[in-house]
Amino acid sequence: MEAENQTKFSEFFLLGLSEDSELQPLFFGLFLSMYLVTVLGNLFIILAVSSDPHLHTPMYFFLSNLSFVDICFITTTVPKMLVNIQTQSKVISYIGCLTQVYFFMIFAGLDNFILSLMAYDRFVAICHPLHYTVIMKPWLCVLLVLMSWVIIFWASLLHILLITRLNFCIGTEIPHFFCELAQIIKLACSDTLINNICLCVLTVLLVVFPLSGTLFSYSQIVSNLMRISSVGARYKAFSTCGSHLSVVSLFYGTGLGVFLSSTVIHASQRISIASVMYTVVTPMLNPFIYSLRNKDMKGFLRRLLCRATSCA
């Protein structure tokens, strides 16, 4: 027991996506490119929303928050993986691992909450357009985002405090490219009943409830659109939430895919590869989805290019 307790001041080993040394340069270049594209794409959205008065609306306020969270989300995992590949090391300190778990839970949870808030915004805009400005006041939008931060902050902190009571065997290997909560709990050498109960309860409260809210919002949107007789008006109304619906489908689809693969397939390497979809690919694709499918974002891009051309 004394040897196990010492691991609280020691280190873990991240096995990564593959142990094949020939693939490491490929992984480094690929994930570095994806990381840079994600950061630059989401920074573009934040810049667009903050600088263009046409985008100072609740929908784009939530979108800029989503972009900021996506930058932080990918930054919690990819840089450490790149450092490990470059240094040919698999080591992550105990404190570093818990820090990664903590911030990963925060930003994954915020992604979930903000997507739900964006769905509610579209529900009000389409189903109650005359009351939209009355309901979606700026102070309410700020309050909803702040409440999401506070809830996720304390829920993640609770998980970390419960993990600190666990013991881990010396030389613990994590079959993943980052410290993921469920994997850490599985690898503990002590009783994890309380951790698993807390994980299940908070998953229901912080994932299932927001997802249910998102599904309810879109069920009401679809029901409202079906009552519109004009095909043109129906298409115009649907186009206002098409980008968000694509992001929601991508985020929950890849997350559900990883969950199902972890329950059906017990190959840790395949699960870690599947996790790349929602931890790296989804944050990278979000800016493209909102930029290419959103007329307001495309309008800002055209105005930006016109200014750059006139200045040249």
Overview of the molecule:
With 312 residues, this protein is an all-alpha fold. The chain has one domain (2-311): Up-down Bundle (Rhopdopsin 7-helix transmembrane proteins), CATH 1.20.1070.10. The chain has helices at residues 2-5, 24-51, 58-75, 78-87, 94-127, 132-135, 138-163, 181-186, 193-226, 231-264, 268-292, 295-311, and strands at 11-14, 91-93, 173-174. The chain has a three-stranded mixed β-sheet with strand order 2-1-3. It is globular.
Unreliable stretches, pLDDT < 50, 5 or more residues?
1-8
What is the CATH homology-level superfamily? Answer: Rhodopsin 7-helix transmembrane proteins
Number of strands: 3
Main beta sheet strand tally, sense and closure: 3 strands, mixed
Write the layout of secondary structure elements.
Elements (H helix, E strand, L loop, with lengths): L1 H4 L5 E4 L9 H28 L6 H18 L2 H10 L3 E3 H34 L4 H4 L2 H26 L9 E2 L6 H6 L6 H34 L4 H34 L3 H25 L2 H17 L1
Parallel strand pairs: 1-3
Antiparallel strand pairs: 1-2
What are the defining features of this structure?
312 residues, mainly alpha, Rhopdopsin 7-helix transmembrane proteins, 3-stranded mixed sheet, 3 strands, disordered N terminus
In short:
This protein has helices at residues 2-5, 24-51, 58-75, 78-87, 94-127, 132-135, 138-163, 181-186, 193-226, 231-264, 268-292, 295-311; strands at 11-14, 91-93, 173-174. With 312 residues, the chain is an all-alpha fold.
